[in-house]
Amino acid sequence: MAVGLTTLVSFVGNVLSISIIYISSYAFHISKIYIDPQILLIFGIGSAVGALLGAKLTPKINRKVLTIVLAAMAIIAGIYLLTQLF
Description:
Blueprint: H1 2-12, H2 14-30, H3 37-57, H4 63-85
């Protein structure tokens, strides 16, 4: 979502971007789609950790190394999720 918000801000400005994100989030919130809270928690924590690590390590590590580290984190999260589902 952060990349989408950044892109929106660069084209239409802060107020309109936040309004668009709020409306889409609210529409998703009131929809009747079932979301498994455990899966949401796993992906949410993984996404937050990946974003924080990426932001912290970007100036210190080569871009290719950072890509490999974050890809490994995504693969590990995917494997964990698959083992929990089956």
